[in-house]
Design a protein that fits this description.
Number of domains: 3
Radius of gyration: 22 Å
Number of strands: 13
CATH architecture of the largest domain: 3-Layer(aba) Sandwich
Structural class: alpha/beta
Strand content: 15-25%
Distance between the termini: 26 Å
Largest sheet: 5 strands, parallel
CATH class of the largest domain: Alpha Beta
Length: about 325
Amino acid sequence: MTKQIILAEEMGYCWGVRRALDIITKAGDVERPVATIGDVIHNPQIVERLKSQGIDTADSVSEAAEHGFQRVAITAHGAGPARSEDAKSRGLELIDTTCPLVTKVQRLGQKLVRQGYYLVVYGDGYHPEVRGIIAWSDTSRAVAAKHIEDLPWNAPRGQGEEGAIEPPRKVAVVSQTTKNVAEFLKFVGELAPMVARDGGELRICNTICEPTSLRQNALKKLARESDAILAIGGKKSSNTARLAEVGRSYGLPSYHIERAEDIDPAWLDGVDNIGVTAGASTPDDVIADVVRHLQTFGYAAPDTEMLDYDLNVLPNF
């Protein structure tokens, strides 16, 4: 039986990432270098390549200024208003590569707060996208949470028991754009009984972006055809981590890798059909490297036009 590589029907760069890279590469100039505050996208290969084009990284606007940069960039994940204000106060040119779908969530968060809702952002509190959404909401009545236990309440509305901390009457939930749809629905399903009792109001806004949903849905189909899954993307990439999680939820061995060299040959023992997907920040050439590397283990090259690379040229690892 021929061992097969099966590629997900939706994978790799989304339009928001392509847009961010287009903006930043056009701004690149070795004579007038620009510092992105954090990684412009969560892919280490791309971040390294951009350095040769006059595009480096810094942890903060102040660090960029200290290193002599006259131009700084907000990454595709977005940032709070303080970042642009900081750049302006230092006389630095600001380049904004924020994904429009992230900007949409930032504005929605502001609107919900103005309407009197306590804002819950379903996502990773450390992630720049989540921090930016909360910063734009400009209120103390906002929190990031992935589990009910992360919320500042410990009891449903109307309990009235000693020590009970109940939710406010109006709560709204938005999501980090790259989260797992099923896990988001599970979270709001657990939150609803806490808020909706005793006249409470819960507004649910599924702001997981379409590219993320398309990749997760394509992975579900891939899982039905595969014995194991490789999800390719930077270790900081939330949407790639979610793809590996979805694969594991279907009972398949699923591995999050950054590059071909990360593949452990032991993972391929007894695997006839290996499914390959990639996060929204993963370039085609990195995917192609993984596909070519898998061929050295006896897998046939996939019959596809998805990757504009010669898959018959095998790498040397």
